[in-house]
Amino acid sequence: MNEIVTPKSLGLSREDLPNSYIGRSVPRPNARKLVEGRATYTDDVTLPRLVHAAFLRSPHAHARIVSIDTAAALAVPGVVRVFTGADLAKVCDPWVAVLAHLKGMKSAPQYPLPLERATWQGEAVVAVVAETRAAAEDGVAALAVAFDALPAQVDMETALAPGAVVIHPELGDNLVFTRTAETGNVEAAIAGAHKVVEATFHTGRHTGVTLEPRSIIADYNRADGTLTVHHSTQAPHMMQNVFATQLRMAEGDVRVICKDVGGSYGIKVHVYPDEMAVACMSKIMGRPVKFIADRFEAFGSDIHARDHRIKGRLAVDAEGRFLAFDIDDLTGIGPYSVYPRTSAVEGNQVVNLCGGPYAFDNYRCTTTVVLQNKAPTSQYRAVGHPIATTVTEGLVDLAAEALGIDPVAIRRKNLIRDDAYPCTSPAGMKFEGLSHHASLDKLLEMVPVEKIRADQAEQRKRGVYRGLGFASFIELTNPSPFMYGIGGAKISAQDGCTVRMDPDGSLVALSGVTEQGQGTEAILAQIVAHGVGVPVSKVKVVTGDTQTTPYGGGTWACRGAGIGGEAALQSAIALKEQILEVAGAMLQAQAASLDIVMGEVVDKATGQVRMPLAELGRIVYYRGDTLPKDLARELVQTRHFITKEYPFAFTNGIQASWLEVDVETGMVKLLEHWCVEDCGRVINPMLVDEQVRGGIVQGIGGALYEHCIYNEDGQLLTTTLADYLVPMAAEMPDMHVGHVETPTKESLLGAKGAGEAGTAGAPAAIMNAINDALSPLGARVLAQPFTPDRILRALGTIA
Amino acid sequence: MKWPAMGYARVESLDELWQVLDAAGPEAQILAGGQSLLATLSFRLSEPSGLIDITRIAALRGVSVAGATLRIGSLTRHAELGRDPLVAAHAPILAEAAPLIAHPAIRNRGTIGGSLALADPAAELPACVVALDATIVVASRGGERRVPAADFFQGLFTTDLQPGEIITAVEVPVATPASRQTIVEVTRRSGDYAMAGLAAVLAMRADGTVDAARLVFFGVGSGAEIATGASAALIGAPLTRATIAAAQGALADDLDPPGDLHGGPELKRHLARVITARALDTFLASAEQAA
Ligand SMILES: Cc1cc2nc3c(=O)[nH]c(=O)nc-3n(C[C@H](O)[C@H](O)[C@H](O)COP(=O)(O)OP(=O)(O)OC[C@H]3O[C@@H](n4cnc5c(N)ncnc54)[C@H](O)[C@@H]3O)c2cc1C
């Protein structure tokens, strides 16, 4: 295991290593197409007889649908047809998003369009199909829908109180799920502690703003009974199953094609009722229907996330050792759990991850997941991680302050030792191998702490308040069926790759993982080039087509490199063996005495070129008559990979933020940011660094800017990019990224996930830095986003 | 959302504009840089019968000085405002304001005429022209009229423009050696509309005595808000920390800000006080600045 040549193992620089692409910053082959506008997003696909859908969306957070008058809409030029919930329910079964392993979880059946009631503002209620999107919108404007507004349950804090509006009366109450994990004796640990710190944190409801909005074309062909869906999605195979199941079709009659995707971040891994409606309408009409969400619709109907209130206590002894974490998490998830991953996983992750980087004995964490009349929430990049990290790291800093210990020192004292693995956390997470101390050491090589502290002291004298904050974190990657499969969801944790050699010696790799713009295809090409022994330019990668790629899970929970990459490596190695078998027969040599280097079969011992792959291909494909009759000559191999030893491959890291708070305006200026993370084997350092930076930026978004703000009536107030503030380049600090590499032993490749580390740790590092800056003024902020308003309130400047 | 169906005409001269305006009727709208209008069309907030594109009218372009007046054509783009040497010399606050407006792509298209006609309460340029005591030149088929900037703005997205009228230019009294001009704002991100902003134009003698002061706020009310009390508190005495504090104190009566997504009225009042000091501190005698 893990005996893969790397520059390090050979003592060479990455650039000097011949025939190896693992660990090299190879430019992404698909970047140029994206930059030149030659990508194929779903909206770029046009089909004969295509019609366009637009939706009338509920203006109320909660309302009974009294009547729908479609006459005027049908009279609008270009309008083809209008569909209501009842129309679509005839061809589509409702879905209920629960997972069996989340015990006691409940949710209500959801239809493509609601039958009787709208339960959040922005929920699609009626669909209009027309020759153009503009005409469809004209049709929507001409619809006459009478609503009877009902009292809305907006505040999650009152969702379970007597007198709450029960959103789905058949469920009895608004409780979706609750779980308590308990290890040791928390009460006793707290009673005997030297100090107990406690605080209540809020993470703000926000969403993942994808550059390309949700997009779908469903094309039902009556002639052969097939449904082809062009879809901007992370998980084509999962969606194939969903479309087939809900529309009562055979899975094999559904094909999902997903070409370029303009960002997903978890937003595009869910079943959206409006997208299901599009599939239903195509099935009914027998013609292709396109729906591209606009930004306004995106804010009101893409999943939101992170709407949590978390109370936490941390008990420490006199030396600053952690005795117990006691956490109580509450989250509001909207009116339905989202299919099929459910909306309970985020809260469940909080239970799994709190205290994660540290060694301690007593743990209690409860999550309570409730319904409310707001847009549904579900998995968004780094699901639950930024929440758990915020609580954990916020409490750690409080404990350090209470004991008068340095924030770095208290972490060093409590982080799980690097030689303690394998081990299991109090929350029950199994760790194969982490590197908290090595990561902290590396971080301290990068962050000039002494210089920063001196500057901080100097600046304070001049009334300038700067702060340094740290946040250790763990990240759950390479998920096994323990994530969803065991709960009954048809979500593949396994992934596959087929690699074939064509006559000219070029390779095609077909993979079940998908490209969302993050560079998956680039690393797959690197891995295959490395595994077979060809220049990376000779590898073409195909993803995103359920009919041609091996079955797989797609992009989620950081698995492209760790799972899809290993499948690619194994199939590449198998193909290489096959090629060498054939070469051996042609060259009358032992296959084992040959190798493939940069597209040529060479003598392993001398490196002497024996035959270019193009020549081998020519003979196999055109002059097979010259080869021994019984020679196996299939230049194509498929391998699948699934992790078996550990439910998840955890990664770890630590971040630091250095910032300045303008205590007059409450504005935060980010000065510098650091992250050291350990994603195991780094395949493409440039792509990993950019994943980390992009992740940090989304973490900064949650910490300082992004917020889905609702009023008391459940009206979303942040519906444009002028009101919903995404982090922008001008405000971003320089971000320094470092790595420690602890490869997982579960695979030859040794890669774990790297996509969520940045997001997991950034908000907590920023919170701690702000509170460090404010500490001389006796102010503290614990509710994200940390807006000028909240900071000025904490300072007592405004009431 | 997609724009509603509508007509489009591009005119080359004012004469042609009057003809097209007559033919199009009151439902047609003037299109300049399009940076506000086109966005609102995408929300279907208005459904004009047609757009009349004025960007080819040469008479609306250019920056020039005649006597004590700087004339800025209404089609002057924000980006041009930011780099024009005449603007920098004679109305430096406008050059200082330009980079605060949105982002480069928007500044390359957005025009001063469009910004003034729109009268967004958080926009920089309306406050600047009021602080400069500029004159808005408007024209219609019937001829031209000149409106003092302070009278031109009449509240939230409301101006003195009458149907059939357009803004042709802004006339600004040129800066003198006594002029002190600056603009300060608080935004969540660079390029955002201001949470609170202040355009300050003062006339100061060599000994520091303030002869005239116009403190005009934006983002804290229904438009460009002249802070009369605060301005008055500065006049007639040398500028000192004490007079600045008096001006800050007077804001309580000058401003009645509404809340918005950033926070309530108290936040805005507080920020207005902060930026008053930040703007005026730059004009303090250097001895006092250091103190
Ligand atoms: C993302 C974004 C951020 C922005 N941020 C800011 C900001 O921070 N500060 C700021 O001040 N602005 C901001 N803007 C607005 C920008 O400055 C606009 O350019 C400006 O408000 C309108 O100018 P325009 O030439 O684009 O006008 P248009 O959009 O073409 O027109 C706006 C209105 O003015 C009318 N109009 C235009 N010209 C005339 C004329 N000569 N006479 C009579 N009526 C006319 C039009 O009929 C229309 O009603 C922002 C815009 C965007 C898209």
Q: DSSP strand (E) fraction of chain A?
A: 15-25%
* Model regions low in confidence, pLDDT < 50 over at least 5 residues of chain B: none
Low-confidence region ranges of chain A: none
Q: Average pLDDT across residues of chain B?
A: 96
CATH top-level class of the largest domain in chain A = Alpha Beta
**Helicity level of chain B:** 25-40%
Radius of gyration of chain B, CA atoms, in whole angstroms: 19 Å
Derived from helix and strand composition plus strand pairing, the structural class of chain B reads: alpha+beta
**CATH homologous group name of the largest domain in chain A:** Aldehyde oxidase/xanthine dehydrogenase, molybdopterin binding domain
Number of strands of chain B: 12
CATH class of the largest domain in chain B: Alpha Beta
Reading the helices and strands of chain B in chain order gives EHEHEEEHHHHHHEEHEEEEEHHHH
Entry summary:
Chain A is built from 20 helices and 30 strands. Chain A has 799 residues and is α+β, with helices and mostly antiparallel strands.
List descriptors.
heterodimer, A: 799 residues, Aldehyde Oxidoreductase, domain 3, Aldehyde Oxidoreductase, domain 4, 7-stranded mixed β-sheet, 20 helices, globular, B: 291 residues, Uridine Diphospho-n-acetylenolpyruvylglucosamine Reductase, domain 2, Uridine Diphospho-n-acetylenolpyruvylglucosamine Reductase, domain 3, Enolase-like, domain 1, 5-stranded antiparallel β-sheet, 4-stranded antiparallel β-sheet, binds flavin-adenine dinucleotide
